[in-house]
Amino acid sequence: MKEASLLEQLQIETFHCTEQAFQSTMKLSSFHAQPFGFVNGGVYLAYGEVLAGMASNAILAQESTSSNKSVDLDSAKRKVAVGQSITANHVKPKRCEGYVVARGQLLHKGGRNHVWTINIFDETDRLLSHMTVTNSIINV
Fold this sequence. Notes:
By secondary structure, this protein is α+β, with helices and mostly antiparallel strands. Helices cover 22% and strands 41% of the residues.
């Protein structure tokens, strides 16, 4: 039996991405709760890092398919984004029910890293958490 990935466990329901921004919803369940019934702050960190990685990798995939460069040994390597750092402030608690909405904005798009700012809101658009995620761009 295959174990569920973090992406599956988080229960991310939607993800819409452009070259500069993204929006996503995540359904909450007991999986996301800390012992007192509120969303665990680590859930927001995992959610933010997963989304920033998905968005950065979507940008990199788009760039690789639209590139008309001649291929040499170095450019033949595929570029991917991996999490490098994350800082966050959780500003309000939320009972572990309903859903949350994440909105991300690309602050910096460089050859070696992408920096995203992400805000997570409840169903009434109340800010729950604010974070900055830096992804390192590496060759694989």
